[in-house]
Design brief:
Length: about 270
């Protein structure tokens, strides 16, 4: 009786995609091993995945980050909304004073109208109207011109900071996501690193500076920095970084503990 030979896998050129039998297999998913063809292959950060795995948060973590904040208000938006309420109140008070007492003249009328317009743009910005993103940049510029006209060059110097802040808001990735603006993966990578990459190490690093001034914070910053250092794994998906910050946090926290320990030892010896 003729023995049966084990089944041989088809040649690569003959292999067919399970989901699309009419298409040849191009490779296997780096996550689940499923074969894919040109229709369901997705490349993420240089690796090939099937279309199902490519949507998984632990694979395309930048896309997960984008979706998490898509259309969600950021801190800048809330700050602009608060500023809008203040501007509306100031504008209403100035105009009411102008109409009732006529004390401020043309300057008061101009300032009141500017505050109302700025407040209106701020409200539109808070709501998420697309035009308000760019319009917000012009509000402090107009205020700067009016301040220079009314109070002179000294007022212009004080009014330059709102211009810088609004330009920073306009270029902020989180704020772009709130307005549902498309951003590059490079920008998403920077924003993800800032908000999500090893936040424990970042917290330990920031607390370590406070620990130099307030000694009892040092054990907390040291613990956070040690945990953050243990979590570092640049080859993971997503990668876990901030090794340098974790090490710096450990060093600064240790210096704080030793320094404050010596300080209290000296104080205690003097009291004895």
């Amino acid at each position: 009786m003729e023995s049966l030979s084990p089944a041989q896998p088809p040649a690569a050129s003959e292999a067919r995609c399970p989901a699309h039998p009419q298409k040849a297999v191009l490779g296997a998913c780096a996550r689940c091993g499923t074969f894919f063809c040109e229709y369901d292959r997705e490349t993420v950060d240089g690796k090939d995945y099937c279309d199902t795995c490519a949507e998984h948060p632990d694979v395309d973590y930048l896309e997960a980050f984008r979706l998490k904040y898509w259309g969600k208000r950021d801190a800048w938006t809330w700050l602009v909304g608060l500023g809008a309420l203040i501007n509306l109140a100031v504008g209403a008070i100035l105009l009411a004073n102008e109409l009732v007492n006529k004390d401020l003249g043309n300057a008061g009328l101009l300032l009141g109208l500017t505050s109302l317009v700025g407040g209106g743009v701020g409200v539109c910005f808070w709501v998420g109207m697309p035009f308000a993103r760019l319009a917000l940049c012009f509000v402090p510029i107009i205020s700067l011109i009016i301040s220079g006209f009314i109070a002179g060059a000294e007022a212009v110097g004080r009014s330059i900071w709102p211009v810088i802040i609004t330009l920073s808001i306009y270029n902020n990735t989180r704020n772009k996501l709130f307005f549902k603006e498309e951003v590059s993966r490079e920008a998403l990578q920077k924003a993800w690193h800032l908000f999500h990459n090893n936040t424990v190490a970042r917290a330990g690093f920031m607390l370590s500076f406070l620990a130099l001034l307030i000694g009892f914070v040092a054990p907390i910053s040291l613990l956070c920095s040690i945990i953050g250092l243990r979590r570092v794994n640049p080859t993971a998906t997503p990668p876990v970084g901030r090794k340098g910050q974790a090490i710096a946090g450990i060093v600064l926290s240790s210096v704080s503990i030793v320094g404050w320990g010596l300080f209290w030892a000296v104080v205690k010896l003097k009291l004895i």
